[in-house]
């Protein structure tokens, strides 16, 4: 068993210590469901301290722009979108989905002012697994160096999505995605954890691009959730930067995926999104029952994280102890490597190795 205090932040010139306390700037973050921008609708989101407006043009292409008119600072998301241009509701300035200013209607025909050079900041945006993903990075970047956007390896027959805002830092919230020790105490519910006995767990972990995976293993069928699949399901759990947990469950031809995403909104404000997908149409009948259970599960995380954040605000020190806390230490190692690779303009090199961990849960 190993022990360690919270990972130390380097004070040399190689890496700005503040960078280790902030979310990665060059990464894809979940910005809500793709259906939120259907039918010409716009969606305003807070992303890593930036206000962003999202939408889909008439031709189906997505856009993500800074939600601020450069004229007087008005939120463009409060205006109108005709499928081609966004109109600021303050003075009617129009901007294309490429961010370029198309029209300033208050200008006189005799005014020689050139508005064509005015533009709103654009951000990369893609769609995957039913969600919109935005990279808020403002500087130059190599797309190959950015962690991949989550995707599905089967066609879902149904999906259930819940979002919950957590008043806690991005790092603290992300650590809950890789922490196996809290489950027995935070999620102590009859439908998720019927057995109250702590048992020894032995799992093998190995590195994957920008993260690590708990390799596929047969799980217990004692949980009511797993009984729905029949047999002994095989479970694989992957974590990847910046804050993505991908749980994939297989039972014969049946597939279930339980994905969780952490999205930084601002200082000590994080959006926690849980998406449950399944391949069996019959499970759609259980959605009215599953939704409150999922909300209960996420709310338990929300409440404990907010209380823990209050403690860290008073004394910002964590003690990471034992093999059960090694995944939390790995998160900080992966984050540091991503920052150093970007600073040195080199490919990301996963610092982790294959390892067997033991803990009680």
UniProtKB/TrEMBL annotation:
GO terms for molecular function: 2 iron, 2 sulfur cluster binding; metal ion binding; oxidoreductase activity. Coiled coil: none annotated. The keyword Iron-sulfur applies. Residues 28-134 form the Rieske domain. The keyword Iron applies. CDD domains: Rieske_RO_Alpha_N (cd03469). Keywords: 2Fe-2S, Iron, Iron-sulfur, Metal-binding, Oxidoreductase. This is Putative rieske 2Fe-2S family protein. It comes from Methylorubrum extorquens.
């Amino acid at each position: 068993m190993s022990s360690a205090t919270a990972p130390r932040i380097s004070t040399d010139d190689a890496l700005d210590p503040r960078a280790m306390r902030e979310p990665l700037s060059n990464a894809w973050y979940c910005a809500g469901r793709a259906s939120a921008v259907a039918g010409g609708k716009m969606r305003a989101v807070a992303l890593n301290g930036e206000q962003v407006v999202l939408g889909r043009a008439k031709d189906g292409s997505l856009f993500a722009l800074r939600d601020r008119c450069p004229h007087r600072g008005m939120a463009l998301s409060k205006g109108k979108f005709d499928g081609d241009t966004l109109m600021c509701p303050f003075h009617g300035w129009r901007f294309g989905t490429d961010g370029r200013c198309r029209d300033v209607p208050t200008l006189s025909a005799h005014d020689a002012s050139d508005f064509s050079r005015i533009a709103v900041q654009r951000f990369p945006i893609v769609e995957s697994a039913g969600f919109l993903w935005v990279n808020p990075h403002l500087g130059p970047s190599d797309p190959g160096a950015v962690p991949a956007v989550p995707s599905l390896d089967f066609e879902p027959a149904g999906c259930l999505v819940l979002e919950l805002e957590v008043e806690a830092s991005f790092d603290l919230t992300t650590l809950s995605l890789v922490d196996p020790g809290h489950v027995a105490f935070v999620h102590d519910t009859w439908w998720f954890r019927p057995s109250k006995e702590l048992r020894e767990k032995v799992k093998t972990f190995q590195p994957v691009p920008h993260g690590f995976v708990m390799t596929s293993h047969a799980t217990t069928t004692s949980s009511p959730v797993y009984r729905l699949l029949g047999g002994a399901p095989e479970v694989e759990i992957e974590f990847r930067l910046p804050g993505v947990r991908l749980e994939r469950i297989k039972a014969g031809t049946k597939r279930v995926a339980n994905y969780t995403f952490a999205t930084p909104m601002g200082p000590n404000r994080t959006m926690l999104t849980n998406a449950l997908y399944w391949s069996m149409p019959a499970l759609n009948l259980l959605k009215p029952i599953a939704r409150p259970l999922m909300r209960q599960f996420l709310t338990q995380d929300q409440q404990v994280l907010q209380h823990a954040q209050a403690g860290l605000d008073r004394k910002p020190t964590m003690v990471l102890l034992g093999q059960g806390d090694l995944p939390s230490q790995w998160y900080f190692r992966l984050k540091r490597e991503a920052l150093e690779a970007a600073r040195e303009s080199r490919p990301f090199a996963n610092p982790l190795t294959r390892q067997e961990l033991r803990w009680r849960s």
